[in-house]
Write a structure and sequence with these properties.
The two termini are 22 Å apart. Mean pLDDT is 87; it is low at 1-17 and 205-213. This protein is α+β, with helices and mostly antiparallel strands and 224 residues long. It has 2 domains: 1-18 and 196-224; 20-195, Sandwich (Jelly Rolls). Helix 1 runs antiparallel to helix 2. It has 2 helices and 13 strands; from the N terminus they run αβββββββββββββα. The protein is globular. 19% of the residues lie in helices and 37% in strands. A hairpin with a 6-residue loop joins strand 9 and strand 10. The structure holds calcium ion (CA) (3 copies). Residues 34-35, 59-60, 62-63 line the site of one calcium ion (CA). The site of one calcium ion (CA) has 6 residues, from strand 5.
Length: 224
């Protein structure tokens, strides 16, 4: 009974030690050329995390704006940010694709800012197939100003994203008032929690069980 209890304790300890969220994808845009629609992640736990700006968004309405260290990961320089412009693009956006295989409870964060006439009625959407998207939470505003602010979205309640081979997060811009309206984002980070390794748990629990059995048998021998 005691052995079983201790084995359970070990399992709990193991679960606790692996429950820290870790970075699984990150874009700092410091090498963004101001035109490209496909932007590879600067850091990605599983290779291939990518950001795709809608093909219908003209390159002339994309630019490399001044970046920021707000929400920067690992001491990244401010460098550039990607800037989206023009109310003609209201309703278009960008989609990030990344692996959630072995991960759960994703959290998205980024630094954002906009001009007074920029995109102020934006949506975050998620998908597990890249085709059918569901809005997460209400509309959000990237807040007018020169200074960037950090925006964070905790998607841990969206269990459909847990452990999927490819998860999709989409930022859809809307509400720009005229052609000079812009929003810019920098330092996109996606964190998630690693799934506990079942085999490791079983192994550790067994180890605890054997150790306790051995200790008990030694105690019994000493008492005899
Ligand atoms: Ca451009
Ligand atoms: Ca940057
Ligand atoms: Ca979850």
């Amino acid at each position: 009974m005691r052995a079983l209890f201790c084995a359970t304790c070990l399992s709990c300890l193991c679960l606790t030690s692996t429950s820290e969220a870790e970075l699984i994808a990150n874009w700092n845009f410091n090498s963004y050329d101001g035109d490209a629609h496909t932007i590879a992640a600067d850091r990605s736990f599983a290779p291939g995390a990518s950001m795709e700006i809608d093909a219908t968004w003209p390159s002339t309405d994309l630019s490399a704006s001044t970046g920021t260290t707000e929400n920067a990961f690992g001491g990244d320089a401010a460098g550039s940010a990607v800037q989206f412009a023009n109310n003609a693009n209201n309703g278009k956006g960008l989609t990030m694709a990344f692996s959630m295989d072995g991960w759960y409870d994703p959290v998205l964060s980024f630094a954002g800012r906009r001009t007074g006439n920029g995109f102020d009625t934006n949506q975050l959407l998620y998908s597990t197939d890249g085709v059918s998207f569901t809005q997460f939470g209400g509309n959000f505003d990237t807040v007018q100003g020169v200074n960037y602010q950090t925006f964070s979205f905790d998607l841990s309640t969206v269990n459909a994203l847990d452990n999927v081979s490819t998860a999709y997060l989409r930022i859809q811009w809307d509400g720009a008032a005229n052609s000079s309206g812009t929003s810019a984002i920098d330092n996109v980070q996606i964190h998630a929690v690693p799934e506990p390794h079942d085999l490791a748990l079983i192994g550790l629990a067994s180890f605890g069980f054997i150790t306790i059995r051995r200790r008990r048998s030694q105690t019994q021998k000493a008492a005899a």
